[in-house]
Amino acid sequence: MDGSSGPAPAGLLPPVQGETIAAIATAIAPQQGSVGIVRLSGSTAVAIARALFSAVGQQPWESHRILYGYVRDPRTQQTVDEALLLLMLAPRSYTREDVVEFHCHGGLMAVQQVLQLCLSQGARLAEPGEFTLRAFLNGRLDLTQAEGVADLVAAQSTLAAKTALSGVQGKLAQPIRQLRATCLDLLAEVEARIDFEDDLPPLNEAWVQQQIDAVLSDVDRILATAESGELLRTGLKVAIVGRPNVGKSSLLNAWSRCDRAIVTDLPGTTRDVVESQLVVGGIPIQVLDTAGIRDASDPVEQMGIARSRQVALGADLVLLTIDATAGWTAADSVLYETVREGEGSASRGQRPLILVVNKVDLVTAEALERLNLPVDLPTVHTAAAQQRGIDALEAAILRSIQADQLTPGNLEFTVNQRQEAALTQARNALHQVQQTIEDQLPLDFWTIDLRTAIAALGSITGDEVTESMLDEIFSRFCIGK
Questions:
Q1: Which among 18, 109, 225, 427 is least buried, having the fewest CB atoms inside 10 angstroms?
Q2: 57 neighbors 39 (Cβ within 8 angstroms)
Q3: Closest by alpha carbon to 1, among 102, 140, 154, 136?
Q4: Does residue 293 contact residue 305 with C-beta atoms inside 8 Å?
Q5: CB–CB of 459/467 below 8 Å?
Q6: Structure pTM?
Q7: pLDDT tens-digit series, residues 322-376
Q8: Distance in angstroms (rounded) separating the CA atoms of residues 135 and 21
């Protein structure tokens, strides 16, 4: 990625240019991954590369050119790996510093050995997110773009990746900067009346109110994406709950299209919680198949049932599953009361429940109509053993969490929790400005809350940040990014 022009954030100095950092920039695992990348950034990155890399033939060491050769230990001249070397000289690099990447063989040993050689030549191991932090401090990215990078790396669905990429491209920063600019203009107008009261006409309060109303409307529109953003980032935890042998494991297997859980005719087969990761409507979903909840004498089964209750009470959504051949039983009523009383996910309000009537292939249509279910819940009919009803189940889940806005056409970007808190602070401050105007307080009081709103909006893009804020944000990044 080439560096784009832009100043570093006001009040912050760029990193020490003489310090070169290094890290493995790809996931490493034994017998997995064909390529592993070691990344360096800093003023001595190219010198370290020259000390370690022997290019074959007469290949020129030019920026944005890939060289082929060997990585050798300069002390012993022993070849460590056959590799490619990518040079990206400042300012046309991710960090706007000289960046070098060794593209080695994947696995564990090659990249680890190359990293150790880089450290032996004077580089230090990068902190989590330090490459992106340098990109921010050097004006390569603003703070929303930097957080978009982290979201893109962590994305678990194509829609999550798309909205994260919008953040990287600055689609969130643009409206935030426009709102901040409007607030700065308002502050300038108010302060001008304070400093030059006798030389300027009175401030048009109606115009100020109109400008604040417009800003608040846009703030509310951006804030409305927070819940969708949380869903895309963290996903949804769905618990399949029911009595033993109602087909919970069969439902999980049919849904995940693989045999994740043991299925038998014996009740109490599942002794622990079985998990499966799915994506439904762009939302990552962690499906939890729980042990059948009943009174059991087996100590191992009792432990599984206890875990099932805990999982059910902590899930974002519960699929209460019953057996169509048995209908609604007294045990189902007890189970319903248990899961209904749990608070579920506090961040998303009341947890929804969906009633799944399974094994409908074993009863007639007339018998299904006569079930006379005593609860008023969204109901889905499934025949898990026949893999029937899964599409209807997914549609019911999306309806229950009101995910109709989670589409590429409706969701250009989303805000995270930090950005949501800052926007809320800005909104509260602007409401206070309106109250100050209504109370006919002096202009000096207007400026106090306007400055608060400006600072809150600036903290989103990084125009106004503190060192502690940066530490908190970038500490959540992976090492090497």
A1: 18
A2: no
A3: 140
A4: yes
A5: no
A6: 0.78
A7: 999 999 998 888 888 877 765 444 444 456 889 999 999 999 988 888 888 888 8
A8: 13
